[in-house]
Give the backbone structure.
Amino acid sequence: METENTRDERLSLAENRDMLYEIFRNNARLLRHYKCVSAVQMAEELNNTTFKRGKRIIDLEYGRANPTTEEILIIAKYFNVSLSDLMQKEARVTFVDEINGLAYVVMKAEVYKK
């Protein structure tokens, strides 16, 4: 029989997982956007059948699917960010150089706190 504490712990774990996925989705979408690549281009560059012409990338970014551990590793490597940055910090655009078409994205620290 499940106790109230056990149920509360499960809910807390699910909430934390959902928060991590939300941060991941936002970061992946922002990093891809500011790298100026479409989901299809990213899928082609990754050369991974998991991402199927960009549909999987869009599904991950918009919360229609949750990423596998392998997908998180592949995406972190693609954007050259650490796993903790991708999953626990919020990406923010800090400077946009419209003349040269450059955008600088940094990972804001201490977003995920328990």
